[in-house]
Amino acid sequence: METLSSPEQKKILRQNQYKSSPSWRDSYKRRCLENLRKSRENFVRKFRSASLDTKNSQPTVDDVMTEEWNRLRKDHSELPTCTELLFSTDDEVRYINSIMEEIQAALKTEEESLLEMYTEDYEASLCASIDQLGSNRVICPVCKKFTLFMNKHVVFCKCGIRINTEEDALTLEDVKLSIERAVDIHEKACEQTAVFSTVQMYGIDNLLMTCNVCDYMHIVV
């Protein structure tokens, strides 16, 4: 029976070890996936909090694989180095590289899935914010162009109107509801569009809604 030389024996033993014991492969793949997910989650969190540092780029899939491979070799010193993986033509290394290519493909698929998920989540959050902004916006009923604002109980618009609501303790939402109720009541009885204006009564400016057709008049605020 032919006896194998020591180098050949070691080579075959290592090949059999790689092929029969996938524990390092599963562990390595799991670590890479965890690293990738964590880095992408951190990126999204910093992006949402507006604390993203554009100088620090996110690690690529290859970066993640290299980092985790170096960690793995601390527990599996028999594995080749990253340099050996790149330049060695040994059959053992080729076999490991084939595994690495499979893991790389899986990581890129995972990254695409994460990107799609985060994009959908961000778009949904953005749409919700826009909807909320739109629902809270109050168009000035006098000029019908600009938005009403409130500061220290004073409702004001770029067109020049200023109405102090401190006595009634009204919020901008209250003002919006008052305008909507007044318009709704009038529209049920008259097809003409009512007009808003400011009028001073007892030294206080008020928002008045009037209609010249049905003689409707209502103090909104």
Descriptive overview:
The chain is mainly alpha-helical. The protein has 2 domains: 6-136, no CATH class; 149-219, no CATH class. The chain has helices spanning 6-20, 23-48, 61-75, 82-87, 91-136, 172-189, and strands at 149-151, 154-156, 162-164, 195-201, 204-210, 217-219. It has a 3-stranded antiparallel beta sheet with strand order 1-2-3, with no helix packed on it. It has a 3-stranded antiparallel beta sheet with strand order 4-5-6, with no helix packed on it. β1 (149-151) and β2 form a beta hairpin. α1 (6-20) packs parallel to α5, α2 crosses α3 (61-75) and α2 runs parallel beside α5.
- Enumerate the spans where pLDDT stays under 50 for 5 or more consecutive residues: none
Shape: rod-shaped
Gyration radius, rounded? 35 Å
The number of helices is 6
Number of strands: 6
Strand content: 5-15%
**Percent helix among the residues?**
55-70%
List the helices and strands in order.
Answer: HHHHHEEEHEEE
Structural class: mainly alpha
Distance between the termini: 106 Å
Largest sheet: 3 strands, antiparallel
Q: Give the averaged pLDDT, no decimals.
A: 78
Strand order of the largest sheet: 1-2-3
Counting structural domains, the number is 2
